[in-house]
Design goal:
single chain; alpha+beta; Beta-Lactamase; six-stranded antiparallel β-sheet; 5 helices; 38% helix; globular
């Protein structure tokens, strides 16, 4: 947590990525990330601003707001633990490796959360518990601070960052 506090002085993008890496490590997850609600091409989507672990190459990917685990978490304004979520959220079934369990915690203003911090288990042997929920909930404070700083950037700047990421070699 001290490391994340120091990272607050840096770029919001770097903070979100470090936050995903810390969530991955502290929760012994297989993938972890931070999703923010955005509008793209006239539709509401969750953009994965930070991803660590097995899904790391999916950073900057999007999922539709409706019909996604993140959307459900924002609707309920509560942390959710989902088992085999692709049964209810078809877009997840297109990702590899598949999700066995997902723990998602919303962040942002209580009246209108703006994103989620999530950890994923891709193997049946790893299940999340209350301690994992406590850790991810604590990390959402940093995500909220990074989000506030990202909001100060223009939409065009964020789109340029996304474009540059897609064009950069792996």
């Amino acid at each position: 947590m001290r490391e994340l506090q120091r990272a607050l002085a840096g770029s919001p993008r770097a903070l979100l990525q470090r936050l995903a890496e810390v969530a991955l490590e502290l929760c012994a997850a297989h993938s972890a990330g931070v999703s923010l609600l955005e509008e793209a091409d006239g539709r509401r989507v969750f953009r994965w601003h930070a991803v660590a672990g097995r899904w790391a190459e999916l950073v900057w990917s999007t999922l539709p707001r409706d019909g996604s685990p993140c959307g459900t978490v924002l609707d309920r304004r509560a942390a959710l633990l989902m088992i085999d979520p692709e049964r209810h959220f078809a877009p997840l079934g297109q990702l590899s490796p598949p999700v066995v369990e997902a723990l998602l915690v919303p962040f942002g203003p209580e009246a209108a959360p703006v994103g989620t911090v999530w950890v994923i288990s891709h193997e049946a042997g790893r299940r999340f518990d209350r301690e994992d929920r406590r850790i991810v909930a604590a990390l959402t404070r940093f995500a909220a601070d990074a989000y506030a700083r990202l909001r100060s950037l223009s939409r065009d700047h964020l789109l340029d960052l996304s474009r540059l990421h897609r064009e950069s070699p792996p």
